Known about the structure:
Oligomer: single chain
Bound molecules: coenzyme A
Structural class: alpha+beta
CATH topology of the domain at 3-108: Aminopeptidase
Amino acid sequence: MTNVIRRAEERDVAALQHLQAATPGMPEWTPVHWLGLLSGDAIVVIAEADGEVAGYAVASLLRIPGEVVAELEAIVVASSHRRNGLGNGLLRYLLTEAQAAGAIRLMLEVRTGNGAAQALYRGLGFQEEGLRRRYYRDPVEDAMLMSLQFPQETVAEEKGPE
Ligand SMILES: CC(C)(COP(=O)(O)OP(=O)(O)OC[C@H]1O[C@@H](n2cnc3c(N)ncnc32)[C@H](O)[C@@H]1OP(=O)(O)O)[C@@H](O)C(=O)NCCC(=O)NCCS
């Protein structure tokens, strides 16, 4: 099986919608919302398995004065393609793109009962930062906050003439 991870494009919107509809609990974004993500300040990444869209991950970029922070909005792998490294590949690709866009860290929320996603995040170095009580609905559940700080480039101090 050939897996490819790449940035999503407008032609992928129907497949993205199909996958979100097949995954319980995913945000139900309209085609207009997807197109807005693709043309705006978000990073949308797709995993293809043998040419079929098998997963996606989305991060938004929050531009706070003086810094850029990335926030994971969604990550999904089709149930028939799980435990095959696609989730890991999507997140790694997203981390590289977020860092290239100037982000200093990637933040996320995850259901406290979602052990699979938490294991994926921990494996990539995400640290637990706290809980948001009763954050989710259907069913009501706490959110665990996690984040991964990107290594900062050390800027060499400029030296004047000796
Ligand atoms: C979470 C999700 C994206 C993982 O995708 P995936 O392609 O199966 O993940 P990978 O195969 O890359 O797994 C990477 C690591 O994550 C961990 N992991 C993934 N699924 C796991 C599971 N069911 N149980 C325990 N650990 C799991 C493992 O450490 C795994 O490494 P390993 O296979 O070498 O043991 C997928 O299960 C999914 O789409 N779930 C439904 C949507 C969801 O919950 N999204 C997260 C919302 S915050």
